[in-house]
Structure formats: structure tokens, C-alpha cells
Amino acid sequence: MIVWINGTFGAGKTSTARELAGLLPDATLYDPQLIGDAVRRLLPRKRLAEVSDYQDLPSWRRLVVDAAAAVLAETGGVLVVPMTLLRQDYRDEIFGGLAARRIPVRHVLLAPEETILRERLAQRRREAPEQPADPRDPGRDPGRGADHIPLYLQALSWLTGDAHVIDNGRLSVRETAERIADAVRTGTAAVCDIVQTPEPTRETVAAGVLLFDDRDRVLLVDPTYKPGWEFPGGVVEPGEAPARAGVREVAEELGLTLERPPGLLVVDWEPPRSPAYGGLRLLFDGGRLGEADTARLRLPGPELRAWRFVTEEEAAGLLPRQRHDRLRWALRARERGRPLYLEAGRPTP
Assuming Cys at both sites, which of 36, 197, 202, 318 could form a disulfide with 229, CB separation 3.0 to 4.6 Å? Predict the structure, then answer.
């Protein structure tokens, strides 16, 4: 299990985490800032100059998950993780990756009042005025911590609905840690409900279903557990027919029962690109949804955040490139009335 202590700079995450690690049985302190230190040493300066914060690096987000899983496999028990996450998509990606490894996360937010945060940051500036700044690590720059308060206040709309909130403005570090420990023991700090299937260990077959509105716009969904938009669908289970897998996923994800089996549009072989294994990706034509069907759309909160109908051009700004190529050729196959075989998103000669 992981106890993730969130909050903006000055909230007291690190000191509370150290105290909490001594209160929970078999607890280990795991600070993802160490992963940031490693990434800054490993990546070329040119790449580092392209981001303003190391959290913007996909390698950091993936390594945070991989290292957490490795440490838990080594130590067992509980990992106490002090780390600011103010972008919901990054939280979704990291917690989704942990969920894929069957690691439950209890998310705690330390939320002192803004005036107290600013007082603490001012005190840090006075105590460490000569500390060198790193533009990619505002947590180590006392002068920049206050810059993140507006981002934190903006993120409160989703943070307070997701995490167990503790106002530690008038609490000591020990009292704060004791409250978290009690919330973990009693289950008041509930397990984050992001779910994800285990990461594949070999090539997979996945089935997606394209659903259209009366303007021939295609339906896309926004998964909580990975960046980028997707087609309704998922991995085909062992012994399951791909078309039936697509029908099952549409029912599970959107609450819709397709009246007829979907017709095949494209088969796309996705080559392995580390760390992904690739495999076959099939897209089916699920037909047009009427107004009544659209009104019945229901999203499972732990898996999908939103849905929308988009044009082919609009999809280009939402889908990863290869996924958009797959959509583009699926739409051409739908127009021509015959399926296409693709490799890496391109038709074969």
C-alpha cells in the first residue's frame, strides 16, 4: 500500500512523511524527488531545457511508478510518499500505473490556509536565502514556492474531491502524522478508486469501437489512468472474440448495449516500442447513436473522466499520432465499405 501525501510547497509534506513512517508498521519513506534528481543527471541538457518542471517529463512519471513498485516488492508493508501533484492528468497517470500493478493508494492532502502557507514559505526564504535555485525543481527554491500557490488553489476543485483532506495549519508535525495514521487505520482515508488492468507482459490484442452521432462525429473517451483520449474499447480477454470484447467494453464503459455486432474497419499491427509490447489493434464500426442513446451514456468514474463527439480534425488534437492515423484510415474504410489492414498506422502496399 502507498500513502501519498499531497499538498503545495510549504504544506509540510516531507516532515510529516518522516514522522508518519515511524508511526505505521513496516513503513518506508519513498521520496520521488530522488527520481527527479536522477532524471536531471541522466537526460541531456537539451531535453531538460524543454520543460519547466521535471514532472513534465514522461520518464519521471514512469520511473516514479516503477521505482515505487520495486521498493514495495523489496520491503513490503507501506510506502509513505511526500510529493506535490497539482495536475490531475499526472495524478491519473501515476496512480493509474500503480493500480495496474495492484498497488492501492491512499491519497492525503495537507491543506493549511493560504496565509499560513505564505508565512511558512517566507520563513523558508529567510532561513535559506542563498540556496541555489533549479527552475525545474521549485520545491528546492524557497523563492518560487509561492508561485505555485495559485496552481494549488486552482487544483483544489479536484483535490478535495479525491483526497482525504487535513488542515494542518495549527497542528504540529507529530499531530498531523497521527491524524493520517488514524485515517489509514480506520479507512477514513479511502483507497483511490482509479482502476487499470495489469500492464501487459507480451503482445496484446485490443478492440476499439467507433460510435457516431447524427453529424458523423466520432465518440472519444478520456481515461483517468493514462494521458490522451481513446476509443471506447480495451484488451481482448483470453478466449474472447475481438468483436465481442468491443461490445463488452462499450457496455462496461458507457452503459450502452449494441443492438448488432460491430463491423470490422481496420486491423492495425502496432510494433513494440519499449516499454510497450505492441500487438494487434482492431477498430469496429458500432454505428450511429441517436439522441436517446447519447442521453443514456454513463461513465465509470474510476476509469473514464469524460466523453465527447469530435470531427476527424478535432481528434488530431486529442489522440496520439498513431491512434489518430488508425482513426483516419478507419474512417476511409467506413466510406469505402471494406476493411483495411495497417502496420504502424499505415496501409500496406
Answer: 318
Task: Give bridge partners of residue 6 from the DSSP assignment.
Answer: 109
How far apart are the C-alpha atoms of 46 and 33, rounded to whole Å? 21
Nearest one of 236, 284, 245 to 262, comparing CA atoms: 284
Count Cβ atoms below 10 Å from residue 178 Cβ, excluding itself: 15
| Strands ordered across the beta sheet of 105-110 | 27-29, 78-82, 2-6, 105-110, 164-166
DSSP 2: E
Give the Cα separation of 287 and 259 in Å (integer). 10
Strands 263-270 and 340-343: parallel
pLDDT in tens, 127-177: 765 555 554 454 555 455 677 788 888 999 889 888 999 999 999 999 999
CATH superfamily of the 2-186 domain: P-loop containing nucleotide triphosphate hydrolases (3.40.50.300)
* pTM for the model: 0.68
- The CATH superfamily label for domain 204-347 reads Nucleoside Triphosphate Pyrophosphohydrolase (3.90.79.10)
